[in-house]
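Dear colleagues,

For the upcoming journal club I promised to circulate an example of a predicted protein-ligand complex. I picked one with magnesium ion because it came up in last month's discussion. The inputs are reproduced below in full, followed by the predicted structure.
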Amino acid sequence: MLDRTPAPYRVFTDRDVVDHLGDLPRIRGILGGAKGEWRVRDVADGNLNAVFLVDGPQGGVCVKQALPYVRVAGESWPLDVNRATYEAAYTRRLAPYVKGLAPEVHHYDPEQFVTVMEKLEPHIILRRGLIAGERFPKAPEHVAEYVAQAAFHTSDLAVPFERKAADVALFAQNLALQRITVDLVFTDPYVEVWRNKVTAPLAAWAAALRADVGLKSAVAHFRLRYLTSAQSLLHGDLHSGSVMATPDDTRVIDGEFALVGPTGFDVGNFLAHYVMAWYAKPFHAGAHGAIADYRDAIADDIARFWLTFRRRFLEIWRDEDASGDGLPPSHFADPAGRARLETFRQAYVEAIFRDAIGYLAIKTIRRIVGYAQIADFLTIGDEERRAEAQAGALALARALLKRPENFPDIAAIVDALAYFEGAGLDPKRAPA
Ligand code: SR1
Ligand code: MG
């Protein structure tokens, strides 16, 4: 890990972007024309990085540079630029398995921590589309396919332990971003710390979370699993802002939080952001009668994402070379062994679901009482109304952590959405 910014690095201006691309023959070919004809737009949207779209007479590219600080906080919050190197390594590692589900990377510069990639058009950030009430019917299946492929092919089911160990060793060094996750996701929401952003109407909920030993014990279990379970290579930040979509096409972006961890972490994170979209929807400006249909569609997305992940993960495991060191095929070659292997598969995927439920809850809580809040809720201008929407999501999250046995399958989670809606601002009176 780098603890300082290396010497040749500079934060790019528009001019630097053009000069950098001008030195890359492949990119000159994509953009066409002369440098003077290239138009640069700063489109940074996420919390951490600079992002530019560059258009030339023939085509466009997207340029992402890791800034030496948290973009939304400024220079007072320094952040290791080497995260871009881990993102590049993550993208390369998964490329054979997720073709068409991630943008094509044209070039990575390890001195400027700059990635030049396919400009996705007319894709938009999935979160923005959900807020706008647009439909992306294929996104759940596409992201499920992406996660299933990554979860199988980087696990001990598929690869020799030496290959897995190489991934563990590499991505274990992605320390700066794992520190962000440990602090912002697993720790801050349960203590009083300057980074938390708790609105006044939600103060009682935040205090209740801090005081709930049972809930914090469940969080500790999942925090420890995040730190110790080296199950498969994770995206590490798979929320609706890390997906760009059209109604037909879906791409997963932004793998800078990559690490080898529990598969359910990515699964639960993606589910959490659909769940929060469901709770936020009626409070969005312009919400009208069709809102119930739209929410039903989101509920359907939640179910289809999990069920597709489950089906595809099992299919891939049955169909592809499962000769990793985790389950030697020679031990399961006879009829009894084959039957037992299928039992084992079902248990493995069920364990991913149990993890996903916990991470769904933890990711929900961090987006509501922690630092990095999400536009789904922030676009609800009135704090009282926003808190009403958030309280439903918090009540569900609390139940998922404290009564996981009440949620045996994804249908139980979908059913529970409406049950916890209207939980209200007093956590003591909210359904448990
Ligand atoms: C300092 S803000 C960090 C958050 O932004 C990213 O999107 C991740 O969710 C991270 O937790
Ligand atoms: Mg991101």
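Two points we might discuss: The first helix runs from residue 14 to 22. The chain has a mean pLDDT of 96.

See you all on Thursday,
B. R.
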